[in-house]
């Protein structure tokens, strides 16, 4: 599978799908249920957080100053909502409308180490944000961490979520694994791309490749299906081949836990 970033429309459809699943699973689980994949959170916390993020992202897309958005007040509003699921959906609807109406040359803030146009960036970021938190709602409903067959998204979208983490988040100054002793690591998905990471005591450097040819044989490797690698790297479960214990090391600094 040759990796290409999905289209804006594909990401917008992904947001819609994830919101529907998040709302349905959260409603069935109940607001007080714990979320195994977000230790210390309840479903009510999850809904308040995701609804806040949608509203914050909407403000950015509309050209407002994101520093003027009161995150704490929005989360409090979400907690206080008589119907938290309806509150979530209302915010998601406004986000989707803002993204659909945004011009292709939208000029607003972005924050990951990837040269995407702003409209494409925000559609992608909110697609993966909402997908991961829909998985959290399913985890709450089932009372466990997750397996590949719990993930409804296509291999294409799961691979894109892996790419956003490794190429976008982990190359930021404050993100990603670190090591006093530098090493090379590879992450690969079945029939998909390979990411080569140079890990040291500063932010890792990630290079995407379409195949494993030419990768140093001494590199440490993590492999699995697109859905398994997605779950594992986003700290939501999954089963991967990881003989040298990369995942455990990376969870200390690299994995997303919120």
Report what the structure shows.
The protein is built from eight helices and four strands; from the N terminus they run ααααααββββαα. A four-stranded mixed sheet has the order 3-2-1-4. It is of the alpha+beta class. It has two domains: 8-144, Up-down Bundle (Four Helix Bundle (Hemerythrin (Met), subunit A)), CATH 1.20.120.450; 155-251, Nonspecific Lipid-transfer Protein, Chain A (2-Layer Sandwich), CATH 3.30.1050. The radius of gyration is 18 Å and the shape is globular. The model has no long low-confidence stretch (mean pLDDT 94). Helices cover 48% and strands 9% of the residues. Helix 1 packs parallel to helix 5 (118-142), helix 2 (43-61) runs parallel beside helix 4 and helix 6 (155-169) runs parallel beside helix 7 (226-233).
Shape: globular
The quaternary organization reads as single chain
Determine the CATH topology of the largest domain. Four Helix Bundle (Hemerythrin (Met), subunit A)
CATH architecture of the largest domain: Up-down Bundle
Average pLDDT, rounded to a whole number, is 94
Structural class: alpha+beta
Relative helix content: 40-55%
Tally of individual domains: 2
- Which spans have pLDDT < 50 for at least 5 consecutive residues? none
Strand content: 5-15%
Largest sheet features: 4 strands, mixed
How are strands sequenced across the largest beta sheet?
3-2-1-4
Total strand count, please? Answer: 4
| CATH hierarchy, class of the largest domain | Mainly Alpha
